[in-house]
Amino acid sequence: MEKFIIRGGNELSGEVEISSAKNAVLPLISACILSSDKCILENAPFLQDVFVLNDVLRSINSSIEIKDNNMVIDTSRINNTEPDGELVRKMRASFLTMGPMMARYGKFKISLPGGCNIGTRPIDLHLKGFSALGADIRIGHGYVEARAKKLIGNKIYLDFPSVGATENIMMAAVLAEGETVLENAAGEPEIQDLARFLNKMGAYIIGAGTDTIKIVGVKELKGIKHRPIPDRIEAGTFMTAAAITRSKIKVNGIIDSHLKPVIAKLTEMGCIIEKDQNSLVIDGRNSLKAVDIKTLPYPGFPTDMQAQIMALMCTVKGTSIFTETIFENRFMHVSELKRMGANIKIDGRCAVIEGVENLMGCRVNATDLRAGAAMILAALAAEGVSEIRDIFHIDRGYYHIERKLMKLGANIERIKKMED
Ligand code: EPZ
Q1: What's the predicted TM-score (pTM) here?
Q2: Which CATH number fits domain 22-219: 3.30.479.30, 1.10.443.10, 3.40.50.2300, 3.65.10.10?
Q3: Cellular component terms, GO, for this chain's entry (predicted)?
């Protein structure tokens, strides 16, 4: 298994380019199922999660080719409605194929998504939406099967503004008969990007980005070319790298309106952030102060940045209170941070962090994607050498993060083979 070796203490400098958003590209790939024309995703990120979803589509006879950074997706020859269960269980976002498959073929059988380290992550809201559109849903033996002669538009209220359920139901409704109104919908930028993509294909969707989305069904959708939005979580992660190493760097290829909550909290801590078109300069060299964080659905503070900011707060004098309202178990990084000398106490969905003078480098594990990113950040600031294992979690959502960090001056190395 691979690992990262990081020697902490380097100041960072220079510029980093942000890649396309993992959480935009995954629903966009699924949305290509809705048309038998070829679709092209430009500047697609080469991430493990993207590779897994591509293999899920290949398992139902779609073809996906990568030609100089573009991903050409052809679903015209899909020949079955039951993707490979092993692949689906590897990555929860495979479940985003269900909506488009229901819309195009009227039936689908898929393995229930595997749980993951950050909580049980049910799919009840997805299935409630599909049933409201007229699908007959059956669950058994680890699979969910859905059948619907024709999906009929309906009014659907989401008990929680679930990102995946909003995306899945939106994709199911675009070819349904009549109008669907999705209330208490999620409004993340990735959902807005998906709605833009579907409308370019010929769908009729209004209100994406608000809590009420209206979809009027159309007969068919055509193939298009699309450049996904940049990854606001990757950008936030590098901004936090600057803050935790008390450095100044430039972050290129961003949409700053997607970063509002992250910019607000880093500024509140004392970072100086200057925005310019599609880039920003963050200066974390001042003495920073402790802030409280409460994760909320967009445009609240993103849960996917919680672990990274917690690593930063471990190095800032004062007391920070973190409240994780989205997932019931997203503090897996706490025990790993404590191995490095962090002072953190957990009480249910709250964590209280007392900043310490120095974190100490040591051997830690990446327990999930964003926890892994947090461990890298902590190691960049820690005294001495850290070894981060299970870095396959990190490769799911960051394309060769070590190359981008090395370019900024970090002392980080990926060790390919690991002696046990
Ligand atoms: C998306 O996951 C993201 N993944 C996650 O990013 C992100 O953390 C999450 O949204 C919240 O912003 C992708 O977009 C591929 P949810 P998703 O449905 O859609 C509960 C990362 O690090 N829920 O909004 O699975 C659920 O249990 C990943 O890049 C139900 O109860 O998130 C959770 O507590 C991690 N029933 C909450 O809603 C359902 O049917 C939020 O889940 C669905 C969800």
Answers
A1: 0.97
A2: 3.65.10.10
A3: cytoplasm
